Every structure is written in C-alpha cells, then in structure tokens.
Amino acid sequence: MRAPLRALTLAAVAGGAAFGYASILERNWFALRRADVPVLPAGSEPVRLLHLSDIHLTPGRHRLLSWIRSLDTLAPDLVVNTGDSIAHAQSVDPLLDALGPLLDRPGVFVYGSNDLYSPVPGNPLHYLWDTSAKRHNRHVPDLPWAELGASMAAAGWLDANNARGRVKAAGLDIEVGGVHDSHICRAHYEDIAGPTDPTADLRLGVMHSPEPAIMDQFAADGYDLLLAGHTHGGQVCVPGYGALVTNCGIEPARASGLHRHPAEGGPGRPWLHVSAGLGTSPWTPVRFACRPEAALLTLVPRIG
Ligand SMILES: [Fe+2]
Question: pTM for this one?
C-alpha cells in the first residue's frame, strides 16, 4: 500500500474508533460529580442537593434511564433539574418513571429550549463561532413541555420558570428564584428581580443557560448558590485541556463544575455549579473527554 493511501486508511480507522468510543462508550459512561459548597448558616447540618440537567431523553436510552433510577439511593434532600429533560414527544412518561421516588423529594425545575422544541440537525462546528440561540427560528413548541412541567409540579416540585418560591428541605427554609431559557428569549429576570430574603437559610438561583448577564443580576440580588446546565461541559473536549465551547456567554473554563460568579472578585460572590448534563442532542450523539454526569452537592456551613 502506498504511503498516502496508508495514511488515509489509518486516519479513517482512527476516526471511526474515536466516534465509536464517543457515541457508544463515553455517552453511556455516567458519572456522579461530588462537591462541598459552603453556603449554609453556621451550625447547619449538611444538605444533599442532587443536580440533574440536560437529560435530552429519547426512546430506547435504557442505560440512561436505569442510571437515573439509581440516583434515589443517594437520598438527596433536594433535587434540582435545570432543564433540557426531553428530546422526543414520547419521553415524558419514561422520564417520570425513571425519576420515580425522586419526585417524592423536595424539588425545583426550570425548562431548557429542548423541552419545548424537538431537536433538529445542524453543523456541530457552528458552536466554534456561534451559539445555537442565533439559529433558533421556531416559535410554536412541538414537545410536551407543559405535560412534563405539570407532572413535576403535581409531584410537589417548584416550577421556577420566571418565578420565585420557597422550598423546605432538610429542615431549612430555602428561597428560590429561577428563569426560563434565555436561548429562546423566555428568560425574564424582571419577573423575579428584587433583593432576596436575608432571613432565609439559603437563597438558590436556578436557570438553564449560565448567561453572565443574568447571573450578574442573581448575584446583585443576593443569591448564595446558582445552578445551571446547558453547556454539556463542552461535550467534545480536549483531554488534559477541557472545553472548547459552551454554546452561551460563559467562558469554557467554567463550562462545568463548581466555580464562583463572577469568576473574579471578593468572597461575597455566589457559588455557581454548572452541570455537564446527562445527554446530548440525538443529532450529535457523542461525548468525548466529558462524561455525562449528575452532581451531588453537599451544602455545608459557610467558612468563617
Ligand atoms: Fe442541553
């Protein structure tokens, strides 16, 4: 075999192997991220918060469903779902079934754009220079987002889409403020704007997409902890380096995990946890160096 042909064959084999790994193995290699977050009043007992995001459920994802079903054994005190839960019209019932006893625990949810609009194919390279928000041109939702939300609300979870509310978890009084997805122009922070309650034990801000301009407003209103998803942690990352893209305004260095917002500043800034999420669009069914994840955050008393 001549050298150029051999090189092309090797490249094709390597590319096929990498795609197979990313689409079959890593996409189903679920991880539980754990972190302690010092946001509670002195003397509080630890609170276990399970953060779910970006499940993007389509029919047939049995491994994903059974992994979600196993999460109740973590005995979380509070469950927060930051959206993009479904990616198919037939996904609501399987998702609710997998959440199962988690729905009996205190919970909070917001929607992502993919709860409303079915996924469409696109060039994934676009994410290198643009976000999907600029390509969104549909105005009539075609997925059963209302049925999904009504079911979570009927179970007792707080609907925090452009809403504020109160949740009791592990004996703590938690003030919650949340916004709908900014990528489809449904985030209306003005609906929840205003100082948080200093008598609450914790002030929790919830959103799908971690847009810095919205997080600035949460920070200014005194929220202690912000939770978001949407980025998929970069989804296809560079080993040893990390995310290249976030599909929103936050920089790749904060594409997933526990950070502060703003990234630089004093000790009074809120904590920010961005979930890399559990799924992908069915049109880009790959994850590389970025395992699908849920997070168990242990909320503990503030330091000092
Ligand atoms: Fe997503």
Answer: 0.94
